[in-house]
Amino acid sequence: MISLKNIKKYFHKGSVNEVFALNDINLEIGEGEFVTVIGSNGAGKSTLLNCIAGSFLPDSGSITINNCDVTAWPEYKRAKFISRVFQDPLLGTCPSATIQQNMALAIRRGMSRGLAPGVKTKDKPFFREQLKHLGLGLEDRVMDIVGLLSGGQRQALTMLMATMVRPEVLLLDEHIAALDPKTANQILSLTRDIVAEQNLTTLMITHNMKHAIAFGSRLIMLHQGRIILDVRGEEKMQLTVKDLLAQFYRSQGEELANDSLLLG
Ligand SMILES: Nc1ncnc2c1ncn2[C@@H]1O[C@H](COP(=O)(O)OP(=O)(O)OP(=O)(O)O)[C@@H](O)[C@H]1O
């Protein structure tokens, strides 16, 4: 479970370029909840994930994961709880190492790394079994250098590696945005299966409103650093892209109304 209380995050505070990226975020995410996160460019989506992951610390507020206050923890210390998959498939893997060397690193998540661990003979059948689940034939290519894989194959491997040791929290930062539509759908299905099998607490940023509605158990919309929509269950299932667009334009309209008030 994740709990964010009164999270505020500024960039360039006190300067003319000041940005209020997260404006008093309060969010409780229960164990196994799969939250899709939408919002316009600059709404604060990545900043929210960065604050949870510890990529940077909030200016105020607190973050707890499974009742452990991690607010002041640096990113590397939170890594024992959190796995993250980015838009760029290059970021989740070591491209110059083989598939099984990458998996050997992933299986040691949260443990002290020490010197290069190498691939243990006893782990090899497990790696092949895991790869087989992907249905991409990668189980027959364990000695291939990861840099040779296509973006989709690599992102599938990244998803596998991110969840081989069950994380308490899975953060997906537009993880399908760089893929063609067919591959994106395959990775989304894989995501849904892994999240369901392991009952993972998950946040997934997407710009695709259809995906935001179809996937996950809860949907939040951010606008100017605030949560302006938070729906789950039946209410989420009834949502349409039209509803989301209406909400989106309403938030933009309010902004215009405020501006006109100010200018008036
Ligand atoms: N490291 C940073 N330094 C300065 N400003 C930043 C930094 N990171 C984010 N911002 C600013 O904070 C605001 C929120 O950015 P963020 O990346 O969280 O938005 P987003 O919703 O993820 O947008 P997008 O959909 O375009 O990726 C933006 O105005 C952005 O310019």
Automatic annotation (TrEMBL):
InterPro entries: AAA+_ATPase, ABC_transporter-like_ATP-bd, ABC_transporter-like_CS, ABC_transporter_ATP-bind, P-loop_NTPase. SMART domains: AAA. Signal peptide: none annotated. One of its GO terms (cellular component) is plasma membrane. It is a peripheral membrane protein. Keywords: ATP-binding, Cell membrane, Membrane, Nucleotide-binding, Transport. It comes from the Bacteria. Residues 2-249 form the ABC transporter domain. The keyword Nucleotide-binding applies. Pfam families: ABC_tran. It is found in: Cell membrane. One of its GO terms (molecular function) is ATP hydrolysis activity. Its main location: membrane. This is Putative ABC transport system ATP-binding protein. It comes from Desulfopila aestuarii DSM 18488. The lineage of its organism: Bacteria, Pseudomonadati, Thermodesulfobacteriota, Desulfobulbia, Desulfobulbales.
